[in-house]
């Protein structure tokens, strides 16, 4: 409605909804619940009760929400028709919080499927929030239609594949069995106490690493202190070689010692020195690799 000034006329606005909005020509459907939420300053200068009653008589559910400090509580209750649908807040920001949840709870309600043809169940129908299921007397089980009870001649708990319905409720894998079903988890994950939901297995609880263990989703890895080095088994840390462990003329590198030659600083003499020692010289053309190797070997230009 266009704002024409002159004060608050909430009653007229509600009457406009009755005369126009709630008409089939304007989108109203017979199979849809009519819900009207009136947001106002709560100080209407006309009658709000009469049109509100007429609106509810037409089958609509009404909510009254007053915003601000000068709200008249009785007006909001007259618009809502019930205190459970009447709200007063200080600012518009509060509408998306508690008020929205209250509206949802009042509008949305569970339908009892068991009230209609016993939910299709041959025996007992059990209603749940948003759904239902059928159950059977002792010595009988549900057939594959999940509705008909049949005689249990094999000692099974059910005659159908539970995994075919919502994966049996399992968060990961579901395995059907003669007596029911089992949930399974991917490697590195275990079932929680509900036997349905998988959670990360903390492998570090088994103390597999010799030093530090770091748990990750579905796996783990071991870490070593800076003075240690990881072994090939990726579990055990061993002490790095120190200069005290190396003979004269050698320098520590990981778990081994490498010979250091400070005299053969050109390629040809370096190659000859390596050959004399029973080795061969590796020439590094890539500047990036050379920088890394040089740093690791304390500035040497050639590595034998």
UniProtKB/TrEMBL annotation:
UniProt domain EGF-like: residue ranges: 200-238
Membrane topology term: Single-pass type I membrane protein
One CC-aspect GO term: membrane
Keyword Repeat on entry: yes
InterPro entries listed in its UniProt record: ECM_Assembly_Org, EGF, EGF-like_Ca-bd_dom, EGF-type_Asp/Asn_hydroxyl_site, EGF_Ca-bd_CS, VWF_A, vWFA_dom_sf
SMART domains associated with the record: EGF, EGF_CA
Keyword terms of this UniProt record: Disulfide bond, EGF-like domain, Endocytosis, Glycoprotein, Membrane, Receptor, Repeat, Transmembrane, Transmembrane helix
Residue ranges of domain VWFA in the record: 1-103
Biological process terms in GO annotation: endocytosis
Pfam families in UniProt: FXa_inhibition, VWA
Organism: Ciona savignyi (Pacific transparent sea squirt)
One Gene Ontology term of the molecular function aspect: calcium ion binding
Localization per record: Membrane
Protein name: VWFA domain-containing protein
UniProt superkingdom: Eukaryota
Lineage: Eukaryota, Metazoa, Chordata, Tunicata, Ascidiacea
